[in-house]
Amino acid sequence: MKRSIFTLVVMTGLFAPACFNAQQKDSISTEAYQPFTQDSKRFDDWAVSAGVGTALIQTGNITSINNGAGKTLFGYSAYFSVDKAITHAFGLKLQYDKGETRQGFASTKDHLDNVKAARTQYDAISLLADVNISNLLRRVDNKSNFRWALHGYVGAGTLAYRAYLQEPGKPYNQSLATEVKPFKLGSLFAQFGTGVKYRMAESWDLEARAMYVVTNDNTFDGAINQYQHTTNKISDNMLTAALGVTYNIGKHQSHLFWHDPLQEIYYKLDVLADKTDDVEVCKKGDADNDGVCDDWDRQLDTPAGARVDGSGVALDADLDGVIDLYDKCVTVPGPVENNGCPIESIKHNNNDGVSETVLDLKGIEFNLNSDKILSGNTPILENAIRTINQSGGSYLIIGATDTRGTDAYNQKLSERRAGNVKNFLIKNGANAGKLQSVGRGEKDLLYPECEPATKCPEWKNRANRRVYFEAK
């Protein structure tokens, strides 16, 4: 069931006064509010994660990716973490990593004496910041249940490892080259990366993650031990990629990273709507189907499609007696016989010198910066054709604009408007010999007070953008 935020605003407006009266400043009861505690939470914020994948040394004296023998040697990696969500977009992870990298090339078939091969077994403990990037971009009024989320990770910790080096020409003879103990200054490392999570169930998430580990150590790859000296002091950095799962600990249906606080409100509104559907709201019904019960509807025969006020009366914005549904000029009063639009009268002097009305025509309005005749003006112009052909005089078709734009531009625009109306009349049967068109730009305003245009509401500026007739 679709429902806009407007519904929430209405609901808030209905219940807010009652809540306010129940919570007077001098007599606030303990039931007027509920402190935020573990029991009052509607979401879980603890989780554990685990995953397995591969590990490769990306930079070093010997590497795992396209090493000296042109091969890529895949190691393995695994991680386990305890996760705490602090906000909907930020959390912390205490993570343990374990794995092994393989670098160089150790095949007896393709082994070269000048290419070393090694493997490194490592253990690491780190503290990672977890940023839910998706939640930073999402709207909180999105009623969809989120299923995907992009996370970013960055942190530091302590790294312990044992690097084994293969002696040249002896593929099965590997000796310990370097060993680094944890929790020492030289064991500090940093890592950062990203992961894409998919919510499989209420408590389970699936994640694909890639991390980049900066060891700041030149002996991690095993090619150099701590007793050797070299000018190549490049940091041996590592890439890890893993597929893992997260278990959200708690009794609630959603974790804080997946929680949408408005979901409960939408649920309650759906329940309320379902109950309302089963109740007969109008005792006497709603005969005209305008949304106002006949019990208090003051207009029981409202036309279909008409907008009504709270008493069921069709709206008439300009109070001219023509409801907005049928009013061709909603904001400008006009008679019923002219569809609620004002009438401009053109008079001629007959042969006896007496002035008589020969043409009643309202202003033909145009959109801003446009000379296109609107489809709503077609009936008016067709009536003008009949009147022109039946009368004995000739007419001047005058184009005008509002005060926006330069004088030169408005002059050209008014000429095009008048010309288009003339062409329309002639094309549809009007006597061409009785018609002449002229443009007066912004010099002939129906509402002169609209100079500049910002002084007036838009309906007045629109009325200035018109074509009208004068008798010659």
Automatic annotation (TrEMBL):
Question: Which key words are in the record?
Answer: Cell outer membrane, Ion transport, Membrane, Porin, Signal, Transmembrane, Transmembrane beta strand, Transport
A molecular function (GO) term: calcium ion binding
Indicate the secretion signal residues: 1-22
TM segment ranges: none
User: Which PROSITE patterns has this protein been placed in?
Assistant: OMPA_2
Q: How does it sit in the membrane?
A: Multi-pass membrane protein
Its Gene Ontology cellular component terms are:
cell outer membrane; pore complex
Gene Ontology biological process terms from the UniProt entry: monoatomic ion transport
Chief site of localization: membrane
Domain OmpA-like spans what residues?
A: 354-472
Keyword Signal in the entry? The reply is: yes
Q: Where in the cell is it found?
A: Cell outer membrane
**Cited Gene3D superfamilies:** OmpA-like domain (3.30.1330.60)
SUPFAM superfamilies linked: OMPA-like, OmpA-like, TSP type-3 repeat
Give a Pfam family name: OmpA
UniProt protein name: OmpA-OmpF porin, OOP family
The organism of origin for this protein: Soonwooa buanensis
